[in-house]
Amino acid sequence: MDTFTLAATSFTIALSLFIMGKKDKLQVSFSVFCLAISIAQAALFFQGLFAPRFWIYVEYIGILAIAPLAVWFFRHLTHNNSYLSQGSVALTSLISLTGVGMQFTPLTARPYFRYALIAYACIVLVICYIALFHHVNKLTPSTEKRRLRYLLITCPTAAFICSADIFGYLGYNFPPIAGLVLSALLYLTLLIIAYPQLSELHDFFARALVIFISTIIGAFIFYFVAFFFSSNLPSFTSVVMASFLIVISVTPVKMILKKFFSFLYPDSKDVFTSLYEFDEKLEREKALLLSEMAPVFAHEIRNPLGSIKGAAQVLQSEATTEEHRQLLNVIIEEVNRLNAVVSQFLDYARPGSGKIRAQDINAIILRVISIIAANRLAGNITISRELQDGLPPVNVDEQQMIQVMINISLNAIEAMPQGGSLTFRTSKIETSEGVAIGITIRDTGSGISPDDLKNIFKPFYTTRERGVGLGLAICQRIIREHGGSIRVKSIPGRGSVFFIRLTANGKL
């Protein structure tokens, strides 16, 4: 079962990458590498079921294919910046082809031949690991370096855990786990190369935890059901491996069925939409309806507001007492406030229609700082900047980005009534899909409570007495329309940090 798990997992990963249809060389090389592992492990599994001699040959071919494909994959993983050259791929391919030719000689009958092939594949994998190690050490601090370090740590850890199988060969009653461990390692590698948006260690741990919990739950459900129908239950290790295989196979199988049914039933687009995803679809439809109703809603409110304000101004000019003038002034101020609320509501409801073009994000931040410094509320605030030079441009609407940063900055200033510091920082973030720009806005204010933190981007949620609760919701919408992301961390009493990430793909 251990061998079958690794064969099926590697095949599932290869299949999922093929189905995704991306022509990225890194993903293609990894999918072919996984396919070679799948062939070798499947042949080893079938040797106990069918004519063993044929499957022995297939296993040897799979093992021999692993070496050149591993070099090819690690070359792309290091962006061709390691000592693994095209000549290394050619050399390992030549050695592997020689090994394939040796299968037609009496050497294959020798018991050490298989161990020699395994040793050859392991040596090449160690060389590839060393190349990756040197490549990571030469990288400047970046997201890519951090992600590759996770792989550097995981590989020897997996090798150490797999060494526990030695106890099984020595006669101890220890179930084989190497297949399950290597399957998890391949899945982690898939996350690293195919999902660059997972950049933090907790992201990978969260994914691994979801897979682990789903696997254990699946195993317990099997035992719970099987308990009522059979007295001969399989071992817990076998059930866990089968459950793990089912969990990671759900998405690729769903993708295959989706393509198949979209061909047979092109009008049934929601056949694979889960009941929970229907809620998200409903939210998108509500947002579209809101964008259509908002202008009409604003027009119908602003017209009477304008009449009220005009009448109040006329009456104010004719008022004979100070008390009447103050009451009429309250009416005018409240009309202005309601008009501002309607404007913010329009900004949130209508889709962005800004002028997107390549911009220098540092220049935008310097303009924001000059605007904030001129605000009388920032009199006792120290504004500092840590802007990285040489950042690539980003495709953004300048006015909308200024609006986002000013909204965040004014909230930060209000959180520091006794003074404090406001820091703007930019950085270059390298990912496997390209370069991104990171913008950090940090304050030393009162911070945000955990209960408020999870709601601050919700429309009309506010903690201020006369606040509207649309400022941060508008910020989030603008950033998302630019294809970026925004998040916040805060410690009550110590301050808050807003993180904005935008893709760098413009040209000045």
Note down, in words, how this protein is organized.
It is a single chain. The protein is of the alpha+beta class and 508 residues long. The chain has three domains: 263 residues, Rhopdopsin 7-helix transmembrane proteins (Up-down Bundle); 73 residues, Helix Hairpins, CATH 1.10.287; 147 residues, Heat Shock Protein 90. The chain is 64% helix and 10% strand. It has 16 helices and seven strands. Strands 2-4-5-7-6 form a five-stranded mixed beta sheet. Strands 1-3 form a two-stranded antiparallel ribbon. Strand 4 and strand 5 form a beta hairpin. Helix 5 packs antiparallel against helix 6. The chain is elongated. The model has no long low-confidence stretch (mean pLDDT 79).
Q: How do you describe this structure in short?
A:
With 508 residues, the protein is an alpha+beta fold. The chain contains 16 helices and seven strands. The chain folds into three domains: 263 residues, Rhopdopsin 7-helix transmembrane proteins (Up-down Bundle); 73 residues, Helix Hairpins (Orthogonal Bundle), CATH 1.10.287; 147 residues, Heat Shock Protein 90, CATH 3.30.565.10.
